[in-house]
Amino acid sequence: MFLPRLMIADERKSGVVPPSVLLAAALKERGYRLRLFVAGPDERIVKLLEVCTGERVTVLDPFLAGGEKRLRFLFQHTADASALNLVVAPLAYEREEEARLLLQRKTLEIAEALSMPLCPCIYARMAAAVAARTMKDLGSQLGMYSSISIHAALFASVLNPREYQLLETELGRILPWLSFGYLPSNLEIPLPEDDLLFREFPGSMKFIGLKTTVLQLQGLTEHIQWPLFGALGKQAEEQTTSQIEIPGRAGGVAAVLRHPGLGGYGDNVERLLKEMGLYVGIFSVDDHIPVEADVIYISHGEPGYLQELLGNGSFRQILGKVVLKERRFFVNGGLASLFGERLTIDGEELQGLRFFPFAATCRHTVGQMDYVWIEAETTGPLLKENERGRGLLPQGVSLEGIKRGEPEWRFLEVHDRHEIGQGCWSIKKSLVTQAYLDPWSSIQSFWRWISF
Fold first, then answer.
1. Among 275, 369, 278, which residue's Cα sits nearest to residue 328?
2. 123, 12 in Cβ contact below 8 A?
3. In terms of CB atoms within 10 Å, which of 130, 273, 350, 403 comes out highest?
4. CA–CA dist 32, 34 (Å, integer)
5. Residue 100 CB coordination number (10 Å)
């Protein structure tokens, strides 16, 4: 199986839009057909890519997918053979020394598992000699990963063309890598505030500064060797087709709620529903919920960004009909907080939608979560007793059963397996949980839920 693919792994700087995001958006503006992925769950990066490109994003994570083989399975079933499958990944968040990056192991695991050509991008605002030493050390560190191919590199935040000439000369002297080019320092742009990222749709004029930066970048024909991206993507090795199979094709319709505050963990569930033969349609908070849908899915989101649902009487009324008709309804992540008896958001006490017997406490913690094993203590609509899945537990959400409302799942720390929380309540075929359950690690369970 041949899938054109490339990973842009960049050095990250706090409070700044990563160069890889700007490059992905510029490639889209230049007419590249892209299929976008993010290495590891990162709500802000997923949302930035959606805003800048208008494309949906899939999260690649070795733990969530269920190991290396299942990661390849996920990638092969969600990649597009007719597009450049581009993975945006963090190379490093900090430096151990002035010229030594502290590399992100997860990024390298993904590149290895998928035989992914990798293009490193480092900040070069410091002296050219330091940037060159950083690249040399990076080459030594990456040399330990024989299955990762590197043919070219990029520099970000370069002060002027003269500095870049020095960097390009040094790169050619110390490593057998081409230089893609550089992003000028004036294109370094601060991250949008969370209230903007998670409240405004991608077409909002409030993102004009970000989109103007992308347009400036895509017009820099002498700074960046744009054709190299497509060329390197085609240098990827053929992959052996995964022997893991989707259990079957159920048919039917799935309706997915779309809102800027949702989907920070990617579109992985939607992709699996499509693979299982369902037509996936979209509805918004202002739309009528399509009660004829066989599955209604609401992804992870910060409760504070969708408080409007609490005052939406028609939303609650129609959802009630969905539950009574035994349609499948699943709230997978932090937004489950809204569906209990009551909740407290950043100290403000509110009445919940009152579908399930629990009280929720929430605080703003975008991007803060723990990897967990999810284990069913009793048989429910999705997981059978003692079945286990993999997921993410948002740190700012706590649900506690009331009126004898006992939770059905417990959440276990990944390494020593001690319990760090409980959750999940269900009615007939509907369920809500504050922990995000990754579907690709529980394919048989999802198949059983949607098909029976």
1. 278
2. no
3. 273
4. 6
5. 15
Is residue 22 scored above 90 in pLDDT? Answer: yes
Q: Count CB atoms within 10 A of the CB of residue 440.
A: 26
Q: Is 233 helix (H, G, I), strand (E, B) or coil?
A: helix
- DSSP H or E run through 315: helix 313-324
Give tens-digit pLDDT for 345-379: 988 899 999 999 999 999 888 889 999 999 999 99
Q: Is pLDDT at 99 greater than 90 in this prediction?
A: yes
Beta bridge partners of 426: 431
How far, in Å, CA of 360 to CA of 350, rounded? 10
Residue 197 has pLDDT above 80, yes or no: yes
Helix (H, G, I), strand (E, B) or coil at 381: coil
Q: What is the C-alpha R_g of the chain?
A: 23
Question: Where are the extended beta strands (E) located within 141-225?
Answer: 152-158, 178-184
Whole-structure pTM over 0.90, yes or no? yes
Tell me which H or E stretch contains 71: helix 68-78
Q: How confident is the model at residue 288 (pLDDT cuts 50, 70, 90)?
A: confident
CA dihedral 382→384→390→394, nearest 10 degrees, is 60
Using the 8-state DSSP alphabet, how is residue 252 labeled? S
Q: Is 243 exposed, middle or buried (0-12, 13-18, 19+ CB in 10 A)?
A: exposed
Helix (H) or strand (E) holding 46, with range, is helix 43-53
